[in-house]
Amino acid sequence: MLKLSCSLRSAALLLRPAAAAQPRAHFGTGPQQKHRTFYEFRTYCIHPDQNAAFLKLTNEKIHLRTAHSELVGYWSVEYGGLNKVFHIWKYDSYAQRAEVRATLAQDPTWVSEYLSKALPMLTSQDNEVTYMVPWSRLQSPPQEGGVYELVSFQMRPGGPAVWGKAFQAAVTAHDAPGYGKLIGAFHCEFGLQNRVHALWWFESPDHRAEIRHTAHHDARVVAAVRNNIVNLDSQRNQLMLPCPFSPLK
């Protein structure tokens, strides 16, 4: 009887569809990062009465920080948040970032001339580690003097295997016909999971408003956005002005 029972269980395992486990195995996967380079997004909130002083101090002392690692861009938030700055730092590896942070902590000039003065001006700090999505490359704006929009999408759980293609289609539907200049698209690794960001450049806030109005009448864009929002939980937009010392202007 025992032998027969074991045989029946074995037969049941053999007859079980192999595909049943497949969705669980690949539910959160998608195109993977092929290199170690990542981008740290940092957001600082500033005491309202210290905003101007913080920007002045950073403008004067940022060279002490950029001597250690690459600054991609530094912006003050104009719409979508008040008394905030947003900056992006590029690292070749986690080991490089750890080394940079350790070196800065032991740099008396950085600590005395910037850090000790800047920290009391802040109300909070936040950071994310992001990778560029596989189909995006970091771009430069066509000219200096514009504004940047950071659009942050909180997607539903599941990862790029679930919503990656729809997100790509929605972004490229705006980028390809010129409804804004895509600077880069990023996927959050540490921070809120299933979050993706698109960084755009426009000539001015009014230019952005005109382009958005035109895009809303483009059937191809409307269809791509409609397909993407099925997987979208929330979205946040911030319009930002590049600081004088920002590499991306």
From TrEMBL:
Keywords: Signal. It comes from the Eukaryota. Residues 39-137, 148-247 form the NIPSNAP domain. SUPFAM superfamilies: Dimeric alpha+beta barrel. InterPro entries: Dimeric_a/b-barrel, NIPSNAP, NipSnap_domain. GO terms for cellular component: mitochondrion. Residues 1-20 form the signal peptide. One of its GO terms (biological process) is mitophagy. Belongs to the NipSnap family. This is Nipsnap homolog 3A (C. elegans). The lineage of its organism: Eukaryota, Metazoa, Chordata, Craniata, Vertebrata. The gene is NIPSNAP3A.
